[in-house]
Specification:
This protein is α+β, with helices and mostly antiparallel strands. The chain has a single domain, classed as Nuclear Transport Factor 2, Chain: A (Roll). It contains five helices and six strands; from the N terminus they run αααββαββββα. A six-stranded mixed sheet has the order 2-1-6-5-4-3. The longest helix has 13 residues.
Length: 133
């Protein structure tokens, strides 16, 4: 059984990763909640205006796509969906979590967090015993 809310959030998350959307202040604004906040993989805190400005200032390279894996979602409340997934771009990997809120304009990204990780961490995280050579 599929959850239409989770599917809508996934569709919008993937739109946010599209270079065309990432280069357009108007398209970004359509997907970001007015109270949007982010803790970026860089450790920086972002709000809606600063993310839109940073992504559309022309210095961000869109030559390499952002690859996503393991995207899953769960409805936390009638108007709230959480997505978790991993990304890779330019050799940098991050675990990501997004909260999408239902508004009168549809599902909008309310909160996002990215946490960088190295490939080795994937197999040696808490509770996982590293394998020898």
């Amino acid at each position: 059984m599929t959850d239409d809310a989770v599917e809508a959030a996934i569709e919008n998350e993937l739109r946010l990763l599209d270079p065309t959307v990432r280069n357009s202040p108007g398209l970004l604004a359509e997907l970001l909640h007015p109270e949007f906040r982010e803790f970026g993989a860089s450790g920086r805190r972002w709000d809606r205006d600063s993310v839109i400005a940073a992504l559309t200032d022309g210095s961000a390279s869109t030559a390499r796509p952002i690859t996503t894996t393991r995207m899953t979602g769960v409805r936390l409340a009638e108007d709230l969906v959480q997505l978790t997934f991993d990304t890779e771009s330019k050799g940098r990997r991050a675990h990501r979590s997004s909260l999408w809120r239902l508004t009168d304009r549809g599902w909008l990204l309310y909160f996002h967090q990215g946490t960088p990780y190295e490939e080795e961490e994937e197999s040696t995280g808490p509770g996982v015993t590293p394998q020898g050579p």
